[in-house]
Design brief:
Elements: H1 5-8, H2 13-23, E1 28-33, E2 39-43, H3 44-60, E3 68-72, H4 77-88, E4 92-96, H5 102-112, E5 116-119, H6 122-129, E6 140-143, E7 155-157, H7 158-171, H8 175-181, E8 188-193, E9 203-207, H9 208-221, E10 230-233, H10 240-252, E11 255-258, H11 265-272, E12 276-279, H12 281-296, H13 300-321, H14 328-348, E13 355-358, H15 365-372, E14 377-384, E15 389-393, E16 406-407, E17 412-415, E18 420-424, E19 431-432, H16 436-442, E20 449-457, E21 463-468, E22 473-474, E23 480-481, H17 483-490, E24 496-502, E25 509-515, H18 517-523, H19 527-542, E26 551-556, H20 576-582, H21 584-593, E27 600-602
Parallel strand pairs: 1-11, 3-4, 3-5, 4-8, 5-6, 6-7, 10-11, 12-13, 13-14, 25-26, 26-27
Antiparallel strand pairs: 1-2, 8-9, 9-19, 14-15, 15-16, 17-18, 18-20, 20-21, 22-23, 24-25
Length: 607
């Protein structure tokens, strides 16, 4: 469905939102669950009133054009209301991941010069108040769930903000619209702080124009969503993927079921039965592991039927990828497979999911093919914070597994001499906040953004990502190695949860491997059985890569790499430098042991 002209003419984010609210005031914008686990629906008309009240309430204590509001909390409707209310004033938002420590939050608050901090709970507010002296610029604290337990004029609740804003709306009904006219495409909208995989996070400045270009282009590039579709909002809104998902929902009229806790997502999936999902690879890897585990624990007959059906589905997917007709006999088999197997798998995803998108990190192409075989359009997209979200995406009828698709409308792509992917277009960010030199390093004089990713473009324009430029390992022998592809090969086995390949300036490659705890527990594997299985995985991997890319030593770590340990970003990207530091004793042990292909050691198997 094409973007409605009323919405496509909008130049700023608040214009986009108000255009949708005027176009479909009775359409359900979102649903949320209360403390009694009862779902409540909110229409766009009601949503717009919330935004107006929030904007005017924020304005009453000093937020105006070019001010900054920091938002720290889980993914809830209130997060979006505060965001839209802030942007309607010509101010901008600095989002903070809910997993951040108070010290990390303070860094973002200070770097962004935020004067208002909005938190989702009194507990989160209390945690930052313990280091209150570190954020002297904040003059107002707002809590949107529960009560602000701290007394004083500097602390309030979102309900109180709504109350003040509602009073102002009655007294000055024209004030909101007046504020809206001051917002331009150049006005800052969001500061998206990078995950900091290689250093302190940088504030990626996205203007209103950047956000509108990225979200409208995405909807025009993939015009298959409309106001009959629904999805789950559960990824961090401080991340560009979920934030742009939020804007595209507004543009297309897609309803959202808010899920403030990832652990609640599976229950929301089965209860609300959405038609579309956005997730990072780690989410889909977990779902895949559960499905495969269920099959492995089934009867021999059930296993045979599953694998027969999956083979049929895979054959159909490959023909569709090549845009070839499905032979009648295969179509009949596919219909039978759908009735026996595919429909049951889809039921585990709620039953209505027809499209799933994955982005933010590399994913095994076989995982995409796995889900597509069940009749779900599972599409990989690509983008960075600096591209305001997705710059590329595969489409249901124009996809190539193993690539991230073709460029969005308005995006130019080019591969530099060293293999780096360069992009240009209106969606390219304004710059890094307060870091002009860092900005100049990635945006050249011709306007090309240097992504830091290595890739290649095929003859049909599909982009394939091979690795991050900074991840490239240069061995002691001078060989350049892209570790992501090797790690993907290792992770293809269900028992492996995560893998990190090491070898920069070393004579050979090694790997740290984290097992899937659910798999190990369900299989009841002994230490010897695990070692034998990983030996086989490494040996099989080594047959598929060049000699200098082979893994000569590995160690199994006693747990999965985690966010709390600093080993993963909030979007589940691995922080290689932190992982190596945390497990340095195992790394030293591997290189002290010397080259010995196909053998490793388990630190412990009690994963």
């Amino acid at each position: 469905m094409a973007v409605h002209p009323t919405i496509s003419q909008a130049k700023t984010v608040p214009e986009l939102f108000m255009a949708r609210a005027r176009l479909t005031p009775a359409l359900v914008a979102y649903e949320y669950q209360d403390e009694e686990k009862i779902w409540h629906a909110v229409t766009y008309d009601e949503y717009a009133i919330q935004v107006k009240k929030a904007a005017l309430g924020l304005h009453s204590f000093g937020i105006e054009k070019d001010s900054c509001v920091a938002i720290w909390g889980n993914t809830t409707p209130e997060w979006t209301v505060l965001d839209l209310g802030t942007l309607a004033l010509g101010a901008h938002v600095a989002g903070i991941y809910q997993t951040c420590t108070p010290e990390q939050a303070a860094y973002i608050i200070n770097d962004s010069r935020a004067t208002v901090l909005c938190c989702d709970s009194p507990e989160r507010l209390d945690s930052i108040l313990e280091i209150r002296e570190q954020i002297p610029n904040v003059v107002k604290f707002v809590v949107w769930s529960g009560q602000a337990q701290t007394e004083g004029d500097n602390y309030t609740t979102l309900d109180a903000v709504y109350e003040d804003g509602g009073r102002i709306l009655k007294e000055q009904p024209e004030l909101f619209d007046t504020m809206l006219t001051k917002v331009t495409p150049e006005t800052y909208a969001n500061l998206v702080y990078t995950s900091g995989t290689t250093g302190p996070p940088k504030g990626v400045v996205l203007s209103n124009g950047n956000c509108v270009a990225a979200s409208v282009n995405a909807c025009e590039h993939a015009p298959f969503f409309d106001d009959t579709d629904t999805t789950i909002a559960y990824l961090p809104l401080s991340h560009v993927a979920e934030y742009m998902g939020f804007l595209t929902r507004i543009i297309c009229g897609v309803g959202a079921y808010f899920c403030d806790d990832f652990q609640k997502m599976p229950g929301t999936l089965t209860a609300k039965k959405p038609t579309a999902l956005l997730g990072v690879p780690r989410v889909y890897e977990k779902v895949h592991q559960k499905i495969v585990q269920g099959v492995d624990n089934g009867s021999p007959a059930a296993k045979r039927i599953f694998h027969w059906a999956h083979d049929i589905g895979t054959r159909v997917v490959r023909l569709k990828e090549q845009k070839k007709a499905i032979p009648p006999a295969l179509a009949l088999q596919h219909a039978i497979a759908d009735a026996l197997v595919f429909s049951k798998v889809r039921a585990r995803l709620g039953g209505n999911v027809r499209i799933m998108f994955t982005a933010a990190a590399p994913i095994d192409p076989r995982l995409i093919e796995f889900f597509m075989a069940f009749g779900i359009k599972f599409l990989e997209a690509y983008g960075l914070s600096e591209t305001s979200g997705a710059s590329h995406a595969n489409l249901p009828e124009d996809f190539r597994i193993g690539t991230v698709g073709k460029p969005m409308r308005g995006v130019e792509q080019m591969i530099a001499e060293d293999g780096e992917i360069l992009l240009r277009g209106d969606l390219i960010f304004t710059g890094y906040l307060n870091l002009p030199d860092a900005t100049a390093e990635v945006i050249d004089a011709d306007g090309w953004f240097h992504t830091g990713d290595i890739g290649e473009i095929d003859e049909d324009g599909f982009l394939r990502i091979t690795d991050r430029k900074k991840n490239l390992l240069i061995t002691a022998g001078g060989k350049n190695v892209a570790p992501a592809g090797i790690e993907t090969l290792i992770k293809r086995e269900t028992c492996v949860s995560q893998a990190v390949v090491i070898g920069d300036r070393q004579p050979f490659l090694t790997a740290l491997i984290a097992l899937s705890p659910d798999y190990v527990e369900s299989e009841g594997l002994t230490e010897e059985a695990i070692k034998a299985r990983i030996d086989r995985i490494i040996a099989d991997t080594n047959t598929q890569v060049a000699r200098y890319e082979q893994i000569k030593q590995y160690r199994i770590v006693p747990r999965e790499f985690g966010i709390e340990e600093g080993e993963m970003t909030p979007t589940m990207k691995l922080k290689r430098n932190v992982i190596i530091k945390n497990w340095q004793h195992l790394v030293d042990e591997m290189y002290g042991a010397g080259e010995h292909t196909g053998s490793g050691k388990a630190e412990t198997v009690n994963a």
